[in-house]
Design brief:
- The protein has 371 residues and is mainly α.
- It folds into 2 domains: 223 residues, Orthogonal Bundle (Citrate Synthase, domain 1), CATH 1.10.580; 97 residues, Cytochrome p450-Terp, domain 2.
- 56% of the residues lie in helices and 3% in strands.
- It has 16 helices and 3 strands.
- Strands 1-2-3 form a 3-stranded antiparallel β-sheet.
- Helix 1 packs antiparallel against helix 8, helix 6 packs parallel to helix 7 and helix 10 packs across helix 16.
- It binds acetyl coenzyme *A and oxaloacetate ion.
Length: 371
């Protein structure tokens, strides 16, 4: 038995939710470029869960279900207030809060298809409330209740700031949610599938996935990109900073991908959004710095930007705190996680691969006093 490092190239499951073939990303066969230009996030959520685009009444019903399920138990909001607030990363708060949601769900252990679908709706609805409420509580502000007449993207921005967002902000945020919704068998989705393949519950699968997304080699990279842009500070500093990192063999966050070799098709949409929004906020320097970083990293290492690179300056331009970038990724990706969890339940087999043993051969036990 020989291990494949990082499971590269290993085909671990079948799925009909999303695919990456020849650097093209599709959700249920729809090209991501088509969806990014035309579909709302709620349509994409429906697509991932039902494997078909919704009709008018189906979309209206899903929107209503999401809006109606956004409120979270007061106990969880009170719990936020007990945290050592300045030390807690919002991804850790989200991980705990999603775990707590299960405690207040009477159907948490009901494994019927109907109950699991309802839990998917509740997780999708409540995660945006949890992220925005935590952000406010740590600033000493009260959470803002969702408005049932707003769409998902608008509601997130409204609950975050307490102000009704502008149309351009809603459009950009909605598109970012569409672009992050699913991505074949990425690390967090695989984690979710492994977890629920033991027939554990959907909350456990999503909590496990949040943990996997948090790391800087996966969803956590978007926050690190913003940290890098902040450190570099000016266009003049870019070359020296990036060249030094590359010379030291440090990774440049937001570049490279396990599956894409020619480039991540989502990055160009975020690049365009970054250009527009940074200019609107009179912070074009962030876009200019990003473009120069891309020129150097692509030129020297042949590594194109991934979804996390330009999303950083997009979220910054929406006045979002930098440590909320990865929780926002989770708010979108929970649609994909839950779609994969439901798909796993529908045709389940325990996921249990083997390991190549590289430790010592058979050894004889030595009593502790003789070691
Ligand atoms: C939503 C997402 O999860 S998208 C990915 C987000 N993560 C990041 O942006 C973090 C930075 N990128 C990386 O760490 C990697 O490119 C990953 C984790 C995305 C993919 O990793 P892998 O497929 O395992 O590639 P691996 O890390 O083995 O890299 C292969 C080679 O490219 C180099 N490389 C890969 N990414 C980068 C990078 N961002 N900066 C510099 N060099 C890089 C590696 O150093 C390695 O070089 P070597 O062969 O000389 O040792
Ligand atoms: O697919 C991956 O490995 C990582 C990624 O881009 C994503 O999860 O969106």
């Amino acid at each position: 038995m020989t291990a494949t490092r990082g499971l590269e190239g290993v085909v671990a499951t079948e799925t009909s939710i999303s695919s990456i073939i020849d650097d093209t990303l599709t959700y249920v066969g729809y090209d991501i470029d088509d969806l990014a230009s035309n579909a709302s996030f709620e349509e994409v959520v429906y697509l991932l869960w039902h494997k078909k685009l919704p009709k008018v009444d189906e979309l209206a019903e899903l929107k209503q279900q999401l809006a109606e399920n956004m409120a979270v138990p007061q106990e969880i909001l009170n719990h936020f207030k007990t945290y050592p607030i300045n030390k807690v990363h919002p991804m850790s708060a989200l991980r705990t809060a999603v775990s707590m949601l299960a405690l207040y769900d009477d159907a948490a252990e009901d494994m019927s298809d109907e109950a699991n679908y309802l839990k998917a709706i509740q997780l999708q609805a409540k995660m945006s409330t949890l992220v925005t409420a935590f952000s406010r509580v740590r600033k000493g502000l009260e959470p803002v209740a969702p408005k049932t007449d707003l769409g998902y993207a608008a509601n997130f921005l409204y609950m975050l700031s307490g102000e009704l967002p502008e149309a351009i902000e809603i459009e950009a945020f909605d598109k970012a949610l569409v672009l992050h919704a699913d991505h074949e068998l990425n690390a967090s989705t695989f984690t979710a599938r492994v977890c629920v393949a033991t027939l554990s519950d959907i909350y456990s699968g999503v909590v496990a996935a949040i943990g996997a997304l948090k790391g800087p080699l996966h969803g956590g990279a978007n926050e690190q990109v913003m940290k890098m842009l902040t450190e570099i500070d000016t266009l003049d500093n870019v070359d020296a900073y990036i060249n030094e990192k590359l010379a030291n063999k440090d990774k440049i966050m937001g570049f490279g991908h396990r599956v894409y070799r020619l480039g991540d098709p989502r990055a160009k949409h975020l690049r365009e959004m970054s250009k527009k929004l940074t200019s609107l906020r009179e912070e074009s320097k962030l876009y200019d710095m990003s473009i120069r970083i891309e020129e150097i990293v692509t030129g020297q290492k042949n590594l194109p930007p991934n979804v996390d690179f330009y999303s950083a300056s997009v979220y910054h331009s929406l006045n979002i705190d930098h440590d909320l970038f990865t929780p926002i990724f989770a708010v979108s990706r929970v649609s994909g996680w839950t779609a994969h969890i439901l798909e796993q339940y529908a045709n389940n087999r325990l996921i249990r691969p083997r390991a190549e043993y590289i430790g010592p051969g058979i050894q004889k036990y030595i009593p502790i006093e003789q070691r």
